[in-house]
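User: Teach me something about this protein's shape.
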Amino acid sequence: MVILFKKRLMNMPRLFSKISETQATKENMVDCYHNIKLPERKTKMSCGYDFYAPYDFTIPAHGIVLMATGVKAQMYMDEVLKIHPRSSWALKGIVLANQVGIIDADYYNNPDNEGHILIPLKNITDSSFKVKKGARVAQGIFQPYLITTSDTRLQSERFGGFGSTED
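Assistant: First, the predicted structure itself:
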């Protein structure tokens, strides 16, 4: 099959922003709303934007916690934001439950949750793991992607939140 690169259909910048206070209230994040820190790169050569924990929590031994970031990401329509684990956390036994998170461009305008990015963290050790507010838990990397000429779903719209494109 021939792969073609999609032209940029919108000229909007990439940017991270907080979810609204209304959405934070719906998701019980009012107490930590002021702690939400937008992702950032640590050096000029870093490709990944570090995501921070806005509150303290514990991941039980062999358990999974869905960490609410309080952050959403706007990007070009032909891009994806990939969420990867921090390599130092893997050495501690903390990984992403889904290996790599995929945030589609249309997730940003999601009416269910405003595009709120949630990160599923899994503890593969026999001990609980404490995450402190402000800890860097994962990194996001923006990437363009290609589509095939036989792609027939170009007009489909997103109608849901986290994991909504499941069958």
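Now, about its shape. Residues 10-146 form a domain with the Deoxyuridine 5'-Triphosphate Nucleotidohydrolase; Chain A fold (CATH 2.70.40.10). Residues 21-26 form the longest helix (6 residues). If you'd like, I can walk through any region in more detail.
User: That's plenty for now, thanks!
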